[in-house]
Amino acid sequence: MKDGFLLGDTLLARLARARSVLVLTGAGMSAESGIPTFRDAQTGIWSRFSPQELATPEAFARDPGRVWQWYEERRKSVRSAQPHAGHRALVQLETMVPELTVVTQNVDGLHQLAGSGKVWELHGNILRSRCHLTQRPIGSDWLADSPHSPPRSPYVEGGLARPDVVWFGEVLPTAAVEAAAAAASRCDFCFSIGTTSLVQPAASLPLVALEHGAALVEINPAETPLSPYASLSIRGKASEVLVTLVSEFAAWTGHYEVSPHT
Ligand code: OAD
Predict the structure, then answer these.
(1) How far is the CA of 40 from the centre of ligand 1 (A)?
(2) Could you point out which of 154, 184, 215, 239 has its C-alpha 20 to 30 Å from the C-alpha of 17?
(3) What pTM was computed for the model?
């Protein structure tokens, strides 16, 4: 029974004792739902498009129609995407530990769609829009009725609808950043899933967790700058690894008394 578990006995025991679990996710978490990652060679969004031309406030100021249209294409693929078994495994894990916080760099809302209860979006959500001048949210009915691309803002002359995502050079949403930092400081167990660990401040959250004594498990088919610091790096895809890991954790907690000294 003990042999062959992905996490191994020591990490399983630490997960079983954890009062607070942090799950940090990146684009690799959504890859198996059919949403492309950013930096993977050939298939990554930034290998085909220039972020400077499409994902900066300057790009939107230069050519709002082009930027809006590009996001419209991405929104279409997000709307048709469904959470995969890995998203659902995280929902199951949430029922097995006292607290589980998901902090995601993804803008597709798939964790919430799967049923995760506590999700913080560091980079916004592509399915929401806001006025580029007042920053107030613009509802989908208003957008659907507009003949313009991008739709005009309902709030202020000259305002335009823009996606409610964080562009390069912009400040991240304060509430999400603060909640993510707090979750990293208090967690006893941290998963980093499907991220290159290159973009700050997300990349430093697992290191904050480590500094505060948490165990760190990375799930990624490729090595990342975080790998050397991880208690364990599992080289595999998010869905298959998470399904196996959570069912093994369920079996393990059902079979073992967790000793405080494990
Ligand atoms: P990246 O595209 O940089 O990295 C995706 C990671 O997912 C890579 O490390 C892959 O090896 C891994 N991966 C690919 N398929 C996977 C799978 N099936 N299961 C698990 N892992 C897999 O994406 P992020 O690190 O999320 O920001 O990128 C961070 C930010 O950079 C994004 O949020 C975006 C981008 O510019 C903004 O748009 C603000």
Answers:
(1) 8
(2) 239
(3) 0.95
Looking at residue 92, which CATH number applies to its domain?
Answer: 3.40.50.1220
Q: What does the pLDDT look like over 82-126, one tens digit per residue?
A: 999 999 999 999 999 999 999 999 999 999 999 999 999 999 999
- Centre of ligand 1 from the C-alpha of residue 193, in Å: 9
27 lines ligand 1 (CB under 6 A): yes
- Ligand 1 touching residue 199 (CB < 6 A): yes
Task: Say how many domains are in the chain.
Answer: 2
Q: Is residue 57 part of a domain?
A: yes
The active-site residue out of 123, 132, 148, 212 is: 123
Interval between CA 32 and ligand 1 midpoint (Å): 12
User: What's the angle, vertex CA 120, arms to CA 71 and CA 80, rounded to 5?
Assistant: 40
Ligand 1 atom closest to 107 (CA): 33
DSSP for residue 228: G
- Strand order in 161-165's β-sheet? 137-138, 124-131, 161-165
Q: Determine if the peptide bond prior to 201 is cis (ω within 30°).
A: yes
Q: Crossing angle, helix 8-17 and helix 238-255, to 10 degrees?
A: 80
The verdict on the CB of residue 105 being under 6 Å from ligand 1 is yes
What digits encode the pLDDT tens for the residues 50-73? Answer: 999 999 999 999 999 999 999 999
> Whole-angstrom Cα distance, residue 26 to residue 193?
6
Query: Whose alpha carbon is nearest atom 36 of ligand 1?
Result: 38
Residue 149, number of CB atoms within 10 A of its CB: 13
